[in-house]
Amino acid sequence: MVNDNITKLSPLKINLYLEVLEKTPSGFHNIESLMTFCDFGDIINIKKEKSFRLTIDGPFSEKLSLNDNIIHKSVTFIEKLINKNLTVHINLTKNLPIASGMGGGSSNAATVILCLIEMFNIDCEKDFHKSLFSLGADIPFCFCRKSAIVTGKGENILKIENNYKNFFVLLVNPMIEVSTKKIFEKLTIPTREGFTIFDEKFLSNNQIIDFLNSRTNDLEKPAILQCEEIKNILDVFKNETNSLLSRMTGSGSTCFALFKNKKDLGNAERIFRNKFKKFWVKKTKIVNSFDTL
After folding, report:
1. Adjacent-strand bridge partners of 46
2. How does DSSP assign the chain, residue by residue?
3. Are residues 131 and 10 in the same domain?
4. Is residue 147 a part of any domain in this protein?
5. Which of 119, 139, 156, 288 is deepest in the core (most CB within 10 A)?
6. Which of 159, 188, 205 is the last residue of a domain?
């Protein structure tokens, strides 16, 4: 069936842990991260039209450029793949803060590619997602749209089945952008003694929180050097809420906490809205898997 008008959620991602294992001779960093999605994000709508155009609306649209945008790169990527110019109108509704560690741009790029593949009935090879690494490190994961262990520089995706779908999530962003480049410049890669190799048995309901609390986000400390508010957010999560886990996601500055029920989630939301009136605060929940091809 031909679909001339497609709308998809471009879901935000969170890093339940993110550990930097080594710096490669080429200057990249090899990581291990358990990444998942939440049921909130930006919205992508694509319609067939006589010429290409991109429009952006939503609460965080003003900071984005129409010309220097990863969506253009995504469209060009598909055009080269099929050797055809695409005449579509893409509208991005930008609901997520910019440069926030939630993979907004990467998810937008991946969602646009998914929409175009569906709209133009494009055949993709089995490991197609790996070719998307050239567009951005998080894009292969966002394209797969399923919780996964991500390794290497971001190109290796091990999809997993898990039992943490029902955790509720509170996201808090201090509305301060941090520099990922400066974070990696300040990063000291930890020496890990007794390092535990990931095993999916850790994702059972009675082990997942203990397992996650035994891991870290190695980018937290250098991010806090740029933005002390990150530490303030994590301190409130730890000391004033019934959170099961609290952590910064990605390279920040968004932090998140997991909760077992809506009551604890709601109480935490009220605390943050009262304490930090200018921060971005959002209730959501983990989603293990979104629609795929």
Report:
1. 6, 90
2. ---SEEEEEEEEEEEEEEEEEEE-TTS-EEEEEEEEEEEEEEEEEEEE-SS-EEEEESTT-TTS-SSS-HHHHHHHHHHHHHTS---EEEEEE--SPTTSSS-HHHHHHHHHHHHHHHHTT----TTHHHHGGGT-TTHHHHHHTB-EEEEETTTEEEE---S-TT-EEEEEE-S----HHHHHHH--PPP-TTPPPP-GGGGSTTTHHHHHHTS-BTTHHHHHHH-THHHHHHHHHHHHS--SEEEE-TTSS-EEEEESSHHHHHHHHHHHHHH-TTSEEEEEEEESB----
3. yes
4. yes
5. 139
6. 159
Residue 267: domain span: 168-287
pLDDT tens for each residue of 17-69: 999 998 888 888 999 999 999 999 999 999 999 999 999 999 999 989 888 89
Q: Which two three-digit tokens encode residue 266? A: 């709601």
C-alpha span between 131 and 9 (Å, rounded): 22
User: Tens digit of pLDDT for each residue in 211-228?
Assistant: 899 999 999 999 999 999
Summarised one tens digit per residue, pLDDT across range 246-260 is 999 999 999 999 999
What does the block give as tokens for 89? 């109108």
- Please name the residues in contact with 58: beta carbons below 8 A apart, sequence gap of 6 or more: 42, 43, 92, 93, 94, 95
pTM across the whole model: 0.93
- What average pLDDT is seen over the chain? 91
In this prediction, residue 215 carries a pLDDT of 93
My answer on whether 15 and 136 are in the same domain is yes
